[in-house]
Amino acid sequence: SMPSEMLLKIFSYLDAVSLLCVGCVNKHFYHLASDNGIWLKIYSNCFQPKRTVWGSNSEQTEAVSLGCTALHSRKPGYWKKEYIFKQIAAVKARVMQLVKPVDPYTGLPCRNREAIKVFDLSWIIVLKDKNGKEHIIEKANLSFKDTSVTILWHSTSWPRLDILSTLKLFGVMPLLPDQSRAANKDGPRQRSLIAEYHLSKLTESSVTLGADKLVQLFNLNPGLLIGLWKDKNEIAFVTASLHYHQLLERSILGSATVEYTLSPHKPILDDIDPEYGLHNYNLHLDMHGGNCTFLCGTFKNLFCRRDDIENEYLRLTVVSLKDNTKHLPLTGTVGFSWETDVFKGNVKGCYVMDVTLLDETGKPFWCFSAPASIRLSSRASSLFDYMGHMYTTDYADSEGKICFELVWLEETKEYFIVNLVLYISIKKVNKWYGTNY
Predict the structure, then answer these.
(1) 403 forms bridges with which residues in the sheet?
(2) Max CA distance (Å), the chain
(3) Residue 391 belongs to what H/E stretch?
(4) How confident is the model at residue 269, as a pLDDT?
(5) Between the chain's N and C termini, which has fewer beta carbons within 10 Å?
(6) To 5 degrees, how large is the angle CA 143–CA 145–CA 148?
(7) Which residues lie across from 314 on neighbouring strands?
(8) Mean of all residue pLDDT scores within the chain
């Protein structure tokens, strides 16, 4: 019942974040909280006009300098949108500054943890049921590795799996991060869609990675792991693995409805004859499960020749069966550790694989973080140096494949990597270099 003029006077004392919150109360408050006069004042205080206006009262003159005519000629909410767009542009510029420093060890941005803290970045999953209702799961635990961050969600109120249609993974940050640091979690936030997964017939269409006494693990590409309770076939937890390469851009700079599109790579000038092949590539490989790391290593000076093309792939040999001096042990018992508020467990043979392949200039060429599992091989071992069963583990996407062969040593209770090969798609190589293999 309060007159609009009085409400406008009260709203004029609010800051930008409070105005956005007030606008969510009802339609009447929304229109009043979008008043051009209020937002013009906020805009002019934050973004100084380019031209200087001389006068005794600089604050009032400054507002007038932006134009009384502009104030009345603009559509309602114009200066609110302008203010928000400029703030978002400033955030994008800060993101690009933070990702510039590169870790010489991995070739990736080295200030990811700092950026996550600065922007108050978090991740949520949104489950949509077949009736269109959304269920938001926010509580998450983060685990940082050299080249990735693993996010674990668990809840006591998951909706039933049989009524769900899709799962969306979002990066979330305050709409105005500089002003929202002291605000509560209910302040205005923006979402950036990272990936969308279809859950219909999950147990039939997804890859089964393994199980323990309580849960069964299913893999959804890219990088999503879903744990289902064995008895009830309901969700126990969800884990996402995000590689540091383009992590901030995908988590911050996208929209709520469309996945962020990575900037296209401009082919580098390469005057080397394609017959020479690929040389001086470096691979950084992490294998981990929860808090345990089984392997963390860098392999330098990888190469392949034109003759190494096989079935539309170029082959980069990292560890060879023939050279037992480079065979590698996996530290500890390989398994994926999980926990909820009540239960915890470990699924043996499952882990998360982080791959960072750098080209000869040190730029990330092929990067991913994804769940994987170790399986018994059907091929008998032909190695005389090892007495044990052969196992395999692999990963594939549109850009390449990575294949492992391992031997299990019963005496020492450990796996040894005896063969490790990367297969890079010829299409990927041709697009990267602008050549024709």
Answers:
(1) 394, 421
(2) 92
(3) strand 390-396
(4) 62
(5) N
(6) 90
(7) 309, 424
(8) 86
Is the Cβ–Cβ distance between 313 and 425 less than 8 Å?
A: yes
Q: Give the amino acid at 407.
A: V
- What is the per-residue pLDDT for 64? 44
- Smallest CA-to-CA distance from 37 within 1, 6, 68, 82 is with 68
Helices 36-46 and 4-11, interaxial angle, to 10°?
10
Give the whole-angstrom CA distance, residue 270 versus residue 313: 20
Q: Is the peptide bond before 222 cis (omega within 30 degrees of 0)?
A: yes
- The 3-class secondary structure across 325-354, one letter per residue, is HHCEECCCCCEEEEECCCCEEEEECEEEEE
Q: With left for phi above 0 and alpha for psi between -120 and 50, is residue 201 left, alpha or beta?
A: left
In whole angstroms, what is the distance from residue 319 CA to residue 324 CA?
9
Q: Tell me the fold of 1-45+65-100.
A: Monooxygenase (1.20.1280)
- 431: burial class by Cβ within 10 Å (0-12, 13-18, 19+)? middle
Fill in the DSSP letter of residue 162: G
pLDDT digits (tens, 9 = 90+) for 9-56: 999 999 998 899 899 899 999 999 999 999 989 988 888 655 444 444
- Give me 288's structure tokens: 């981990």
List every span in the chain annotated with CATH 1.20.1280.50. 1-45+65-100
Q: What share of the chain is helix, strand, coil (3-state, %, to 5)?
A: 25, 40, 40
Low-confidence ranges of the chain (pLDDT < 70): 48-73, 178-186, 268-276, 380-385
**Nearest residue to 330 via CA among 370, 290, 286:** 286
Residue type, 277: G
Q: How far apart are CA 412 and CA 418, in angstroms?
A: 16
Per DSSP, the residues of 204-260 read: HHSEEEEE-SSEEEEEETTTEEEEEETTT--EEEEEEEEESTTHHHHHHSS-SSSPP
Tokens of 359: 């080209």
